[in-house]
Amino acid sequence: MPSPILLVLLLSSILGFVLCEADYYGVLGVPKDADEKQIKAAYRSLSKQYHPDKNPGDDSAQQKFIEIGAAYEVLNDPDKRAVYDRYGEEGLKNGGPGGAQGGGRGDPFDIFANFFGGAGRGGPRGGRPGKPRGGDVDTSVEIGLRDFYNGKNLDFQADLQDVCDECDGTGSADGKMHQCPVCHGGGRVVQKRQLAPGMIQQFESPCGECRGTGKKIDHECNKCHGHGVFINRRKYDFKVPPGAERNYVEVFSGESNKSPDWTAGDLRVVVHESSAGNLGYRRVGVNLYRTEVISMKESLRGGWERYIPFLDSYEQSLKLSRPVGKIVLNGDVEVIKGKGMPFPGAEDEHGDLFVKYEVIYPGGDSKLLKEIHDEL
Ligand SMILES: [Zn+2]
Ligand SMILES: [Zn+2]
Fold first, then answer.
1. Residue span of the signal peptide, if any (predicted)?
2. CA angle 363-364-368, nearest 5°?
3. Ligand 2 centroid to 179 CA: how many Å?
């Protein structure tokens, strides 16, 4: 049976925790039970509004843009969101319970140890066994089936946070930093609140004066305005290999938002298949499917040929034909070997193409009907 004092201590620490952390839901302006869609929509509209391109020279807009990005990174990731909901921002800083960074993360009491002044962890910056990993950033692009067939070189730009190279991420123009007079360098302040007569709740929160860094800067870096980070437009290119599957993911390792406080996560690009520009083909696995319409005359008499557009940039059409007298019925399927999608990773091998014939019966074309009747 734990002593009542310990229970009160734990209780108040949990309360304090939830009350004093950065409010990611508030930053995005969504309710606590917001679903993925609401979060995405809020992020899209806010990040547009505060985008540095739209607010040149506006320091507070840039800061807000960074905050919005940080909130979205957490709330859009179900695992991180669960940790945040339960343990707040501090839980995420520690890599979360069971997180991959550092040792001893699996024990939730490790968080409390850190919370109460960090037994042996030595201050908010430095002395940590390893930096936590920052969130991944996902982006997506759409290309047509023809591009999936042949492979496609893509390039794109992304506005992401970089560590300021001017001040090496310190935010200080002269490289000098002073101890914060409010928290005396600890980065955290203790607050007290009376819950009931004789029951004082004591909790820690990040210092507002120095944003939890424990340091003050006299001369802000001109480039990053003291933030140590700035939004940078980066350029990337990559190749979608021939035959790549739907929702192919290209991973740029360690290319997510960067910060002196974390090891950058990955930038991931998901390549979706657009419905436009498929030339009438659809794919299931490595096979291609297509419906081809023929007339009743062609169906019954044979003796026809036609060229249909094809996806391969070296073979842009395929010939379909039937000799005279060869009947094709409505719903017949012709399998053309080796004209499906390239196998991913083995471009010389292909799936098959399935052409399904659909016969159009003439309505009121009595001349053609009579012609066919005579022939039969
Ligand atoms: Zn700077
Ligand atoms: Zn401070």
1. 1-20
2. 95
3. 8
